[in-house]
User: Fold this.
Amino acid sequence: MSTRGVVWLGAPSFPDAARVALKDTQLRANLKRATGTIRDKRLAVASELDDWEELRTAGEAIKRRTARHLHRYLVELEESVTAAGGIVHWAADAAEANRIVTELVLATGESEVVKVKSMATQEIGLNEHLAEHGITAYETDLAELIVQLGDDRPSHILVPAIHKNRTEIRDLFAARMGEWGQPAPEGLSDEPAELAEAARRHLREKFLTAKVAVSGANFAVADTGTVVVVESEGNGRMCLTLPETLITVMGIEKVVPTWSDLEVFLQLLPRSSTGERMNPYTSTWAGTTEGDGPSAFHLVLLDNGRTDTLADTVGRQALACIRCSACLNVCPVFERTGGHAYGSVYPGPIGAVLTPQLVGVDNAASLPFASTLCGACYDACPVKINIPEVLAHLRAEVVEAEREVRSLPTAEALAMKAAAKVLDSPGLLGAAQKAAALGGRAIARNGRIGRLPGPLHGWSDTRDTPAPPAESFRTWWRKNKEGEGR
Assistant:
């Protein structure tokens, strides 16, 4: 499977990218301020519901049931959408999805499309593919617009421009808006209301003239054929209702069986993502209706590695993600490095488990290690994806894959084997402790050991290593406590 779009080919590994990000003090300040604000709002609105944990359990159960019978619900969805006047297309990978969408746009004779914020289209690199065929895609979500104007990449699932502060956005609007349409007004300040108004004026012309729109989908209901998009700005509603042709690209895991199942997620998603009780705009549609909305609707069902992920009984949990970004906002690693360091459309903890499965662990081997395994992501996830469990599972896959291509064991493997032998023998353990204590105290200065020799320097480069005590706990116990309480 092609990895185009899912991961940014040529991007550095997470450790290398993270080192660069950690040196950017402005980036870290922007991230801390934004994630802290969203995190506090989420906690406040979730605590209002007495049945919040029961809702999480219900969401988890619906996703698990759907995954077990996904083939049946997808066929049911296709039948429902077709009966309502829509057309369903099946795309095995990114290349097929891009080809389908591009051909649909070209068939209309148009060379421009307006877009609703969509992770699926970012995953397949749709904008770039359309540009190669002479079609310009205009992002209409405010944050996506900022990213597009800056020739940038999104760094957050919910807030793609979270790495920018408002002064940086003002400068970007002033410099680049005119190249894409309505320019920013003279004397634009960095006040949020003025920035929003500048974006509104810039986009209004596109909304009123576009004949084709491309969207993603938050959910699709199998038994009714209803597709759902939730958003906060109203740009999505404009794109979903004004153009003549609507093309929706949706990952196959976004289907839910029934309308009543949808009700659970419409409570979980806004509280977990934006810290709101409900989304300001929840748009639902089924097929086409004469005189109301687009006259042509196409639904592209995207696999792109999802079927392979389903085959992994541990890793398949990641497909339950409803893209709320709650795990990003509580992750200490993401808060310090930002989304670009992950080299993927899907950043943060969920990206660390989803991306390697979509593209193969050999193409994103560093991502499962981009975590402290603190478990905050699991506690925050509205559908109870056990991200730490999947991270550990994928780490084992990475290690096993590396072992298969090596003719000799690694230094780490040899060290672990030696450690196992020592720990299994009280005599050897005692001798090792004495030797380590003597050696450690010999090289210590002011109670601290400096840079450790050989392969151990990786530990001491980022940590203070205290000098070992003169007496081990085992020795102290024998002298002071052994024999007591018998």
Q: What stands out?
A: The longest helix spans residues 25-46. The longest strand covers residues 245-251.
